[in-house]
Write a structure and sequence with these properties.
The chain has one helix and no strands. It is 92% helix and 0% strand. The chain has one domain. By secondary structure, the chain is mainly α.
Length: 53
Amino acid sequence: MKSIGALQRSVDELKKEKAENEEKEKRLEKNLDDLGDQLASMVQNVHDLQSKL
């Protein structure tokens, strides 16, 4: 059986890991939003080019 100290370290490690994962998730969401914006811009550019042909 784990000691109280070992359990507290495990809890602390899990909290740290959770915070890191939440930060990674925020970065991924921002990257996904940025990619969506880039895709929308590319689609608009294609439409603009097609209208000029």
